[in-house]
Design brief:
Number of helices: 19
Radius of gyration: 27 Å
Number of strands: 34
Structural class: alpha+beta
Shape: globular
Helix content: 25-40%
Largest sheet: 9 strands, mixed
Distance between the termini: 61 Å
Amino acid sequence: MFLAQQRSCLPYPVRFATALLLGFCALAFAGSAWADAADAHIPQPADTPYPGTIAIHVDATDTSQGIFRVHETIPVTAGKLILLYPKWIPGDHSPSGPIDMLAGLKITANGKTLPWKRYKYDVYAFRVDVPQGVSDIDVAFQFLSGRGSHAFIQMTNKMLSLEWNTVSLYPAGHYSRDITFAPSVTLPTGWQFGTALEKQSQSGGNVTFKPTTFNTLVDSPIYAGKYFKRVDLDPGAKVPVHLDIVADAPKDLEITPEQLQVHRNLVTQAYRLFDSHHYDHYDFLFSLSDQLSGNGLEHHQSSEDGMGPDYFTNWANNAPNRDLLAHEYTHSWNGKFRRPADLWTPNFNVPMGDSLLWVYEGQTQYWGFVLTARAGMWTPEQFRDALAMVAANYDRNRPGFQWRTLEDTTNDPTAAHRAMLPYRSWQMSEEYYSGGQMMWLAVDAKIRSLTHDRKSLDTFAKDFFGIDNGSFVTRTYTFDDIVSALNGVVKYDWAGFLHRYVDELNPPLTSGLEASGWKLVYTDQESPYEKEYEEEDESPRHIFNFTYSIGLTLTKDGGINDVRWNGPAFKAGIGSGGTLVAVDGQAYKASVLKHAITAAKDSKAPIELLIKYLGDYRRVAVDYHGGLQYPHLVRVKGTPDYLDQIIAAKK
């Protein structure tokens, strides 16, 4: 692109001569690149067993410096060996393997160092030439946990998350299910742990697990900590389910009987929904921390979940994001057992396709909300308030649907790598989660209407995800499979219905609300649920939401987190990334801005904001007089109340 742009600036005769020269250069470069690519050929994975078992040991005791020290012993034969670092991580839906955190790689055989070389066009691949007479090699390196407030932290002095994809190299040319690993770990003295792996032996902090396939190993992280509690969520069951909690302090492990019961209800309600399970045990790996929090990643027999340290101790004020456990648990059925065909890959370095994430994540987001309410982890009011906030985004805060479809946002994990975006309402980011959730609400309401309440999306969930009870073998699906399953519930033009939401601009994502007997309204009062986003000064969710009024979301200190595209603040020339310093001559506080917005409702004078950006100060007049605006749901009289039916606990 750069060369083409330069050529377009030249006069025609010069452009012609330059084009010829550049053409010859390009051919020469291409020939060189093709030769390098041929030399760098990495064999495609084949469904053949890798000979021998790879031993992997992780020393995770250096918690003060955040260093995982890895040692692998890999059976080999003489010749070229290609080792891969996992790149495409299930659940991340993108090439997000943290290769930048691998350091100190050293490969030896019979006590001698073997040189290695990283491939030029694939930084996740390493070549080593194995000499004659060598039957195994030793591979050692460090994986470095993030450090600092904005880093991805996987180890603190009180807890750690060991994800095997971050600490392993594996041989190319085989399906991951055909490579056997014998894993072991050394944990700090006195620490306890939770994992879906089966323990073989333990001596102090040295733990050895039973050999397992590489795909299962990567799917089975370890959470360990100084302060640990294991809670039985299905007492007496043949298939145990546990909540394995690590916390920053012992007090954060305290659980009331009522809290315990609603978490047990989650398991019960999931079984009643899907009428199946696809594991022989399940572990919620749950971190309660100021550092190792905000995480959520699904696995077949476990999930990684992280919330603030006061999840239990401040239960009354912690409703937001409480659907995390239900969301990740649902993925055991939707995503791990049933999986979109283009998301299944033979190993972790073959690219994934994300086209059906509006099912994988969208329907999971739907069931996450529903199961949280059915379990009693949310009250019906909290469920509706949470849903109102989601719906409001698609009512007023996603003009990006004028140029992008819901399906196109399934490319976001690869295109944006889940980075912060300057104008999310216009660029949009992974709308297949919540936009998909709103679509599936519309599907549920349509099924209930078509069948006169005899069937619902619950019927689909049981028929589609509940098959092969007890089986671990992944069953893939396509768009046509989804349509066929919906038609199996009730005949309808489901292909056309789904295409309208997924493949067309401006999808009717709030239509499912009124079809469920409720409508979205705005008042000048926050719901109790929304207020909880603001109440905890140290909370990571501490955001003040003026999106639906002046068009800003702000941090406690006035940081401009987002600006609604074409909203009042945007039209006045305010961009994201700056800091709101003052409002109408007063130092910024959320309460000051609220007062100014309220006062402007009865005034023709604009709201005057002082903005700091890149060291410069600027006064901006925002001509907004609509008052504070917060979303709520109200009943539509004379219509069936499907929402109450949807969240009613199943007996």
